[in-house]
Amino acid sequence: MLGRLPRMIRLGAIVFSVCLVSQTAFAFNYPLQPEEVRNAYSLGKTTNNEELIKFYNRYVHYFPAPTGNSSIYVQSVEFRTPYEQIVLRTQRNLNTYTTFQADEDYRANPGLVVVRTIVAYKTSYNYVGPQPTAEGFKIAVSQKDAIEPQKITTETICSPLLDDRCTVMTFAVVAWFDAEQFAPGTARIKIETPDGQTIRTKFDLDKLT
Question: In the list 60, 147, 169, 178, which could disulfide-bond 78, CB 3.0-4.6 Å?
């Protein structure tokens, strides 16, 4: 029995190493531990606007309106990790949301990662026609290789066709991923609009939670 001990120790070390690698294989926090869910919930509840702005600046990149003849432009691109999504849900339901609900909502889809592109038409453009769809936009996400989204959808943010108070058509193009599709390092995002514009940005995933 004693003679077999070194081999057992070596095997134990290998198993421990494999577990350690598997726990650190993701750039951002995933899967979230209960304490991390509570921390994200607390951040969403904070009244410290500077703290929130500093947090969101890592997840959202903004772009100026193009100076050419293009009527459509990309306002921002957001990389939503599971952690950031808890912060967002808490903010949106500030007075009614509980830690229990935050935990339940996270567990309903713990690996969801979203790349959300906000698109708008210039104020001088008189938009007419059907609601924009995702088909006209090409969202390319890559690290070492291309990462294919599970689906791409659109969501209306403000539409003059639906609300007289809206003066500008604004909507989001949403690319859905799973956290396990991403590795540590940089994620590169390229958006091609229907009128031929190309927008590029990148996120340092190691700096996201």
Answer: 60
